[in-house]
């Protein structure tokens, strides 16, 4: 199949993927590369970013930057560098994030700050910069937030994580309306449990009974990073040119129960 001729092609598009050093972000960077994009991989761990880069078939086409997304002045410098090397940006996948299972009694102001800063501020500040006239393509662009089913439904111990993901789901709808006149589409993808380093470290993965319970919530079984990456391709490509302000559940049936 000639990728360039399908509406799902990302040929020639400059796509930034955060969290590209691990899990879903890593797979998203690899799949965007396969679909023809020039990918800009962001993450903190340089070695794991390079591993992702070398897993693409065209590493020389792509750029990596090791940075903390909460270092806002550095983020702006990086964007200037990206645009000077590759030209303006067509898409951003906000995938970097952290997760936890914590009962209400253990939620401290510091924990709340940590989650809101990493999961909300990090992506929103980057989106604010990327959508500036100096950085976004004149043709328009596409912003994706990787949220979670936990932003829409609940589980015990998930309130902190849910608050951070729910904030993005709510905010992205208003952003979709605000940015539509600039031809910028804004969408969320809400995965169920996907097998990545994050879910392997989660408390439910530490004993068989809890893991089996989590699996039973997913009629199609647990997800793979490529399930989310493929949804990103759709939302980044022309195939979804009339889609904005949605929250796409990619959850193996979790929210259908
Ligand atoms: N796995 C799941 O079951 C699941 C389900 C629903 C939603 N999600 C969401 O999907 C996204 C990716 O999850 P994952 O499972 O792929 O997790 P992961 O394997 O733990 O990867 C998380 C990524 O986020 C990056 N990151 C975290 N804080 C950062 C910061 N301050 N600055 C820059 N990068 C930062 C990490 O970079 P470094 O490693 O380089 O520090 C890493 O690349 C997250 O937003 C998560 O909430 C995951």
Automatic annotation (TrEMBL):
<dbReference type="InterPro" id="IPR002347">
    <property type="entry name" value="SDR_fam"/>
</dbReference>
<dbReference type="InterPro" id="IPR036291">
    <property type="entry name" value="NAD(P)-bd_dom_sf"/>
</dbReference>
<comment type="similarity">
    <text>Belongs to the short-chain dehydrogenases/reductases (SDR) family.</text>
</comment>
<dbReference type="GO" id="GO:0006633">
    <property type="term" value="P:fatty acid biosynthetic process"/>
</dbReference>
<protein>
    <submittedName>
        <fullName>SDR family oxidoreductase</fullName>
        <ecNumber>1.-.-.-</ecNumber>
    </submittedName>
</protein>
<dbReference type="Pfam" id="PF13561">
    <property type="entry name" value="adh_short_C2"/>
</dbReference>
<dbReference type="GO" id="GO:0048038">
    <property type="term" value="F:quinone binding"/>
</dbReference>
<keyword id="KW-0560">Oxidoreductase</keyword>
<dbReference type="GO" id="GO:0016616">
    <property type="term" value="F:oxidoreductase activity, acting on the CH-OH group of donors, NAD or NADP as acceptor"/>
</dbReference>
């Amino acid at each position: 199949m000639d990728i360039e001729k399908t509406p799902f092609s990302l040929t020639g598009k400059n796509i930034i993927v955060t969290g590209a050093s691990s899990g879903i972000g890593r797979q998203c960077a690899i799949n965007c590369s396969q679909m023809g994009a020039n990918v800009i991989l962001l993450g903190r761990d340089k070695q794991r970013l390079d591993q992702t880069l070398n897993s693409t078939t065209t590493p020389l086409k792509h750029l990596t930057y090791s940075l903390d997304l909460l270092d806002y002045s550095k983020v702006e410098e990086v964007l200037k560098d990206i645009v000077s090397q590759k030209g303006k940006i067509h898409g951003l996948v906000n995938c970097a994030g952290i997760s936890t299972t914590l009962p209400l009694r253990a939620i401290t102001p510091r924990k709340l700050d940590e989650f809101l800063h990493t999961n909300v501020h990090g992506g929103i500040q980057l989106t604010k910069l990327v959508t500036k006239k100096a950085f976004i393509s004149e043709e328009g662009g596409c912003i994706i937030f990787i949220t979670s089913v936990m932003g829409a439904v609940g589980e015990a111990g998930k309130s902190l994580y849910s608050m951070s993901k729910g904030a993005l789901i709510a905010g992205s709808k208003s952003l979709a309306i605000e940015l539509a006149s600039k031809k910028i589409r804004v969408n969320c993808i809400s995965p169920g449990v996907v097998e990545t380093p994050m879910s392997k470290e989660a408390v439910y993965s530490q004993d068989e009974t809890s893991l089996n319970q989590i699996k039973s919530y997913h009629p199609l079984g647990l997800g793979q990073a490529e399930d989310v990456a493929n949804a990103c391709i759709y939302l980044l490509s022309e195939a979804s040119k009339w889609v904005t302000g949605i929250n796409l559940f990619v959850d193996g049936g979790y929210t259908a129960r």
